[in-house]
Design a protein that fits this description.
Residues 55-162 form the PurM-like N-terminal domain. This protein is an alpha+beta fold and 342 residues long. It has twelve helices and twelve strands.
Length: 342
């Protein structure tokens, strides 16, 4: 008799991992979770949402962390990968003004290692708890022949809510507004194919002087920062946000234009924000020019907020590490984003 285990799939190992992660997942549940881990489908009570929103709009996003998983596998540390995934998705729906409600994850590998799965899900759950959202369910798949030995992948879906009257679409952005950056902690979840190509030969355990005591692996695995609490703080301070751009794949050139109305250009001032050392290392090793660097990498810009100039001082006082990095000008033609020296 040929068993499923003979074919490369160990059901008992999968169930053991699910059992081990149970406490971390359940710790994210609120009274709104009516069915979660173990159910065929997660159930979330929308009664409180309907009561607090005149016209509730659900906002959803699905994403992954790309080949950052390959760095985590090579270093042997997957603890931050779960948080990367949750925080990336939180930031994406923030750009529509949404507050996250719940999250669903997907973890797949050629062969499931319970310790790896549990560590990744514990990271997911910790990020969910920090954001006050439920880890409602997910899938753990063992797929020999699809993933090569030692490889794994994580992806997830987030669902949030915003009152229709408070949705952000960038239409409020106007000439005279300022651009304020919320710093990134590093690459976040983009640019890792290039980073691996130029950093792997140096060795992930190596500690170049420029990294000031960090290894390359540690710098590359710095968690993706979530900006939920910062955006909430600005709202509580009555700072009117005209638009938000999450700087992910495509960098400033592709992401900022996604929220701009047709008649404006954004000028970002060189040297007005801190560029983490890991970017300087990658740019040097890859001999990248300025345009390519800002296309592949976030270069220290995690999220760009657009607000009225008269509220800039208040915004900067509300978020201690926020940086004034540019302004919006009237411009009918391309380009939509430019780097300037003043």
């Amino acid at each position: 008799m040929t068993t499923y285990k003979d074919a490369g799939v160990d059901i008992a190992t999968k169930m053991d991992a699910i059992q081990q992660m149970g406490a971390a997942v359940k710790a994210t549940h609120t009274p709104a979770v009516l069915a979660g881990l173990g159910a065929f489908g997660g159930c979330f009570d929308l009664a409180q949402v309907n009561a607090s929103h005149a016209q509730p709009v659900l906002v959803a996003s699905t994403d992954g962390v790309g080949t950052k998983t390959a760095v985590a596998a090579a270093v042997g540390d997957v603890r931050t990968i779960g948080a990367d995934l949750v925080n990336h998705c939180i930031n994406d729906i923030l750009c529509q003004g949404a507050t996250p409600l719940f999250f669903l994850d997907y973890i797949a590998a050629s062969k499931l290692e319970p310790a790896m799965v549990v560590a990744a899900v514990e990271g997911l759950a910790a990020a969910c708890r920090d954001a006050g959202i439920a880890l409602l369910g997910g899938e753990t798949a063992e797929m020999p022949g699809v993933y090569h030995d030692g490889a794994f992948d994580v992806a997830g879906t987030i669902v949030g809510v915003v009152d229709r009257a408070h949705m952000l679409d960038g239409s409020a952005i106007k000439p005279g507004d300022v651009a304020i950056a919320l710093p990134s902690t590093g690459l976040h979840t983009n640019g890792y194919s290039l980073a691996r190509k130029v950093c792997a030969p140096l060795g992930y355990a190596s500690q170049p002087t420029i990294l000031a005591g960090l290894s390359i692996g540690e710098a590359l695995l710095a968690p993706h920062r979530a900006y939920l609490h910062e955006v909430q703080a600005l709202r509580q301070a009555d700072v009117a946000i005209h638009g938000l751009a999450h700087i992910t794949g495509g960098g400033i050139w592709d992401n900022i234009p996604r929220v701009l109305p047709a008649n404006v250009t954004v000028e970002l001032v060189r040297g007005s924000w801190q560029v983490p050392a890991i970017f300087k290392l990658i740019v040097e090793q890859a001999a990248m020019d300025e345009h390519e660097a800002h296309h592949v990498l976030n270069m220290g810009l995690g999220m760009i907020l657009f607000i009225a100039a008269e509220q800039a001082e208040q915004a900067l006082a509300t978020i201690s590490d926020a940086q004034l990095v540019g302004r919006v000008i009237e411009q009918i033609n391309q380009p939509r984003v430019v780097l300037v020296d003043h």
